[in-house]
Amino acid sequence: MTGPAVTRTPVRPAAAGPRPVVPVRRRRGSGWQAYLFIGPSLFGVVGFLLLPMVIVLVLSLFDWELLSAPEFVGLDNYRRLASDGQTWHSLWVTVAYVLLCIPLQTALALAVAMLLNQRVKGVRFLRSLFVVPWMATPIVLGLIWNWIFDPRDGALNSALALVGVTGPDWLSDATWALPAVALVSVWQHTGYNMLFFLAGLQGIPQELHDAAATDGATPAQRFWRVTLPLLNPTMFFVTVTNMIGAFQVFDTVYAMTAGGPSGSTEVINFRIFETAFKQFDFGYASTLSMLLFLIIFLVTLAQVRFFGKRTTYDLS
Amino acid sequence: MTKRILLYATLAAGAFISVFPYLLVVLTAFKTQGQLNSTAPWLPGLPPTTDNIAEMLAGDFPRFILNTALMTAALTAGQLVFTTFAAYAFARLRFRGRDVLFWLYVATMMVPSAVTMIPLFLIMRELDLVNTWYGLLAPYILGTPYGIFLMRQFFKGLPAGLEEAARIDGAGSLTILLRIMLPLCRPALGTLAIITVISSWNSFLWPLIITSGDDTKVITVAIATLKQGIGVDYNLMMAGSLIALVPMVAVFVFFQKHIVRSVVLTGLK
């Protein structure tokens, strides 16, 4: 589960009005009790998140294939990385995947949110239908979409045949496989992201739109000058969380193409999995993990900067 | 008026695309092999057959469903309990190192789960927990930083006056948490429960890595191996998919309002 990395909640001030002045009692014992309260989760965070980070960093400096004893090799794995064409290929595939799905699923989500933000009959029901794809187990989704993309009896090519078009072999065609997998991501995430945009849109006071309209702004101008800037925080949240998820995509790729055909969908996370759990090359796989971590970190940082530079209007 | 029609048409088309694959699963799951070949994918096979479902249920599938349900229940229960305690402490108690620890938690939210998989596996291997329930559950049962963050924000939003009044009456932190805070944060707990149920039920990479035997096999892993097992018998595969999807769709239908609220809670407030 990837969480929103950077959200802030304005702390609501305690009950307004004059508060009775009471001598604040020293909260004796609350110290050890607090540690007791956070104890289990702290154990989890240290043992299953922090320790693994340290291990992966250390392991990336070792040559270790599980059966033999680990051997310290310094930066050898990183040097190997520099000349490892297959990994750079995987990276490129991952970037292509991100570029294929993020802009499309963000734009579509915003568009649907704007459509659903009007007075439409049955809007609640429609909204739920759009969110349904998000519920599905990604691995099951992969299976279903495999069937849709099946070149012979699949729904897509059967439908195309009706209009006289011969569809490609989608998932076994090196050109189409990655777009097909990306399409599944778009299908799954559009509705979910739509909910965020909808919440964001509903937070924009109608007066602003009215004022802009009175001043003679066209609908297009209102969108670019009013709606979009005011949605900045939502846009930030949606793109950051989606990108973090997209860079780690695994389940759908595993179910749909297993990296093929001829490596055209071999995203970096899939390569890490193969290196570690198929080739048992744990040292090098750790190096690849560090690379993925670094990339996600830098991309997130870039987004923080990008969105931070733009003005955010506080409406609360 | 035309604009109105266009709006409805667009929305209807979008909604149709959203549910179409589900529709396909249902239609295909009830087709015989013969009907599968003779009818278009989007048409029902008549008369429908329940053979595929029966065949899937006759095998090991119910056991994997049960395993998944157990895992989901354990992870959700753990998440709710441990997260509530930790989040309350972070939101309302004063103790040394609180802020540093909290930022540590927030920082770990940025670590991609893909990155910690290898060391987690090695830790479990060292502890001899590979292919056990402990190994499967341990990393996620103690509460995730994400859940703690969510609940802390909620606790912070509750009026402090309530708590102070109870303290003056001599209530301890535990009493306050259980008697006063918990009833107030039922909606947030509901949200957290749903998020955890969905992500546990759908989890794949970790179960794939840590389990290998049937005793701990979950539905996602079973589905993934299904494909290799029965080749391209799509009607059987769709029957299996249907069985795996039904519980989540049920959750969705029942808790729809919570889900929409969860989005608002987690994302923007």
Automatic annotation (TrEMBL), chain B:
Residue ranges occupied by any ABC transmembrane type-1 domain in the UniProt entry: 65-255
GO cellular component, one term: plasma membrane
Keywords: Cell membrane, Membrane, Transmembrane, Transmembrane helix, Transport
InterPro entries found in the cross-reference section: MetI-like, MetI-like_sf
Annotated GO biological process: transmembrane transport
Signal peptide interval: none
Pfam families given in the database record: BPD_transp_1
Location(s), subcellular: Cell membrane
Transmembrane segments: 7-30, 64-90, 102-124, 136-155, 236-255
Membrane topology: Multi-pass membrane protein
Family indicated by similarity: Belongs to the binding-protein-dependent transport system permease family.
Protein name: Carbohydrate ABC transporter permease
Classification of source organism: Bacteria, Bacillati, Actinomycetota, Actinomycetes, Streptosporangiales
